[in-house]
Amino acid sequence: MNTPLAFAPITELSRRLRAGDVSTTQLIDVYAERIERYADISKAFISLDLEAARRKAEMADNSANYSPNYSPDNNTDNQLALKGIPYACKDLFDVAGMVTTGGSRVLQDAVAEHDADTIQAMNQAGAICLGKNNLHEFAYGATGENVLYGTAPNPYDHSRLAGGSSSGSAAALGFGLCAATLGTDTGGSVRAPAALCGLVGFKPTFGRISTAGVLPYSWTLDHVGTLTRSAADAAILFKALLPGARDISNVDLQGQVIGIPREFFFARCDSEILDSIDALMVFLRSAGAELTPISMPSMEHTRTVSLTVQMPEALSFHNRYLEERGHLYSQDFRAGLALGQCLLAEQYIRAKRFIERYRREMDAIFADVDLILTPATPVIAPPIGAVEVSVDGSSEAAGNAITRYTSFFNMTGHPAITLPCGMHSAGLPVSAQFIGKHYADEQLLALASRIEAAYDFTLPLPELS
Amino acid sequence: MQKLDKKTLIGIRDQLASYAWEDAEITELVDPKLGIITGFQELLDQLEFLRKVDLGSTPPAGDISTK
């Protein structure tokens, strides 16, 4: 049975486009109508270029690959999988001719002259950019709250957060406004909103996908990532963004050794989330995977290490705008930048040395396991406006809780993917996170695709009025 | 290590090469209200702990080896 077009994964859309069931122009029309219908609720987009999208759609519809002689059954070329597929990107990515606002008043006149490397790669694959997504200002924060462009809500409950900082990217997919989105992930900003909204969030090995042409937040921690409706779609995007990526289709869960880090990554976690992860573990065992407990490096000071790197780097970039436009930044971001000013150089260098130590400790762990499994988040999507959330009787800043299980892997640079694996009794999605070895992105994506294909769990579509 | 004093941060602002942060931002660091940064003092306490950890000759993190 076909999924409604607006919620169909790329794999299905591509098949239907090749088979002539639908044209790219019709697809653009479906999304454009929904973008307009849900604009006031979703807060998903900061800017749109539907005119250019329609022009490209017409070209795609008239191109040779859509001829009746083309066989969808032989569509093994990944490049063709994205041809005519409408997507959107977080408003940190440069798209030539469009403003890159960073979700801020500061850059409302910053028209990009060139495409970011990743946008170029998507163009070359034939994907069509519809517009640019809302976010937490300059990616500073995991709640996705934005006083200027509004706060993107969770598609499953509009009184709750989509999560951030790629909040609009998650909302755009959750409301059925495009087929995939590009985001950035500095502490979980792709994986966490994807997890809270029932989507698949993937960040690659650090440095593997170019960040050129993307507004930086922290060079040491920034990753370009993807939000999609399936792991199979994430694999398609990864191959488009990294054309030299290996083609791994023949993977089996049988014999995979999966590390389970109970001490930190299963602590202070919603009990229903833990139940869903337990059910997933039962499936993984039944599929032949070996689950083994592992001890991770001490997590006690990891947030401190991350902040000590983030804020001086963010300040170093934003210094170029502060003198002229400092008054246009939001109050919370300015306070964060001020903190970056007050840290000592030795503290920054020491934090980067801790990151190297974390990487070496993780390399030692990965000598014995193929993957690591954790819950994606310890909480379901918090209410919009919540400053703190409480789990097991202890309170925590909402943004810190959202990224508590994700941010460590930005420091270590390991590829990581979040997959929906359950529904909470509150009617919100629950997700798992798998972490792979450095440069084993293809293996991770292939295993995640295998899991989603075999695991008996289907997420209901959000009920949108 | 003594407790962080707002005067210290104002001194950094005024006497070292620094952007001219407003008093509100300096106050947020010593008496946080916004919730994202949970307090500079807490961060400094943790950094002081980390300062005492012997990292040997571990270099700062750079690119990730392809090995």
Q: Which fold does the CATH topology of chain A refer to?
A: Amidase signature (AS) enzymes
Q: Give the biggest sheet of chain B.
A: none
Helical residue percent of chain B? 40-55%
Q: What is the gyration radius of chain A calculated from CA atoms? A: 21 Å
| Helix/strand structural class of chain A | alpha/beta
Largest interface, chains and sizes: A-B, 48 and 35 residues
Q: Which strand-content bin applies to the residues of chain B? A: under 5%
Quaternary status of these chains? Answer: heterodimer
Helical element count of chain A?
17
Ends of chain B: how far apart? 42 Å
The rough form of chain A would be described as: globular
- Beta content of chain A comes to 15-25%
Write the layout of secondary structure elements.
The complex is a heterodimer of chains A (465) and B (67).
Chain A: H1 10-19, H2 24-37, H3 39-42, E1 45-48, H4 50-61, H5 78-81, E2 86-90, H6 117-124, E3 128-133, E4 153-154, E5 157-161, H7 167-174, E6 180-185, H8 191-196, E7 200-203, E8 223-228, H9 231-241, E9 257-260, H10 262-265, H11 271-286, E10 290-293, H12 302-325, H13 331-342, H14 345-366, E11 371-375, E12 388-391, E13 394-397, H15 398-402, H16 408-412, E14 416-423, E15 429-435, H17 441-454
Parallel strand pairs in A: 2-3, 2-6, 9-10, 9-11
Antiparallel strand pairs in A: 1-3, 4-5, 6-8, 7-8, 7-14, 11-15, 12-13, 14-15
Chain B: H1 6-15, H2 23-30, H3 40-51
